[in-house]
Amino acid sequence: MGCAHGKCCGHRSESSACDSEEFQEVGQFSVHGKRVLTERSIECAPVPSHKFRLEYSVLTQRGYYPDSPDKENQDSFSIRTQVQGNPNLHFFGVFDGHGQLGTQCSNFVRDRLVDILADNPRLLDDPFNEYSSAFVRTNHELHDSEIDDTMSGTTAITVLVVGDKLLVANVGDSRAVIAHKVGNRIIAEDLSSDQTPFRRDEYERVKLCGARVLSVDQVEGLKDPDIQAWGDEESEGSDPPRLWVQNGMYPGTAFTRSIGDSTAERIGVIADPEVSMVQLTPDHVFFIVASDGVFEFLSSQAVVNMVASYPDPRDACAAIAGESYKRWLEHENRTDDITIIIVHFKDLGNAGANAARTASLRMGRGSSNSSFTTASEMYRSMRSEISDFETYQRTVSNNRSPAIVVPSPSRSPQS
């Protein structure tokens, strides 16, 4: 399978090729004097079932840490085309590690999550539950690994392209955003919702699990802990509400869901993702998957406007990284790590002109609050992707040597 994980996978030419499943060589250039990584070519993944293609580029940049000059880039990313050998199934994910072993945590999740999805023959039968289960299983495996995730972990924002649909799963405060045309405007629509204590539902959930929710100033006694004057996420980014154990000044997470973080797990930080599905239409232009280093000081609409200003997603990635870096230094003496994936839809008009439908399923531990009608429609639609895939296989079989026929997905029960 084609897979890129935030590092060079080999030396390739600069041309774009839709039949390539692997990334081209990672190149380096400067943004505001900082060395960054980006792909030298625009990559392409066709979606034959609906006769359109994805063109994408990615950039990852280590943050500026004057007090920790040797700190690693804790972000990682994964892009895998033709998941399960299915030409209509493509995965995009960004993982933002944190804590002393954040790099190891994000790399572990980067590798295991997509592998678990790829090895699951039931994925398209019950995508909401199987996608969620993959996150939970990855979390358990990280706990059982040699990585000490007591005070380290990672967020995870992922998009699975399934034919003409996007399946989005998220834990943490990184973000996926889709752009769609409305008249002469390009409008940003969040595909995920940041899971932080700013959200009343998440605040109440972690409080019930025993978390204290206070800003650093409140914990340190500089502000009244009984007054919740946090404002909103945009205005109070410098001292947000965080989660603390009772009678202790740890772990201090500013998010309410993640993978890893076994200490924070005891006070309500869970690995169960929120999963949603979007039906693509010809009005959709592109989507973005990015770490919170991008969105800390830039709104989703501002990022979409920047992408829309550049015909080449490589230039858009560089511009967003540069602007994010600039905004960080206007507010603080450091920056966060920054990772951006931009995916353009090409010839999406071929996919049909159905009205956009977004079916959201918020999946907390032990919850089952799904719409039966929406889920049933979605399951039938996902099953049609398998039929399309099997038709594609028969076409390949009739026109190519058997040696290069894409293997059929396993039908045996998952162990």
Automatic annotation (TrEMBL):
Its EC number is 3.1.3.16. This is protein-serine/threonine phosphatase. It comes from Eucalyptus globulus (Tasmanian blue gum). Its cofactor is Mn(2+); Mg(2+). Keywords: Hydrolase, Magnesium, Manganese, Metal-binding, Protein phosphatase. One of its GO terms (molecular function) is protein serine/threonine phosphatase activity. It comes from the Eukaryota. Residues 55-345 form the PPM-type phosphatase domain.
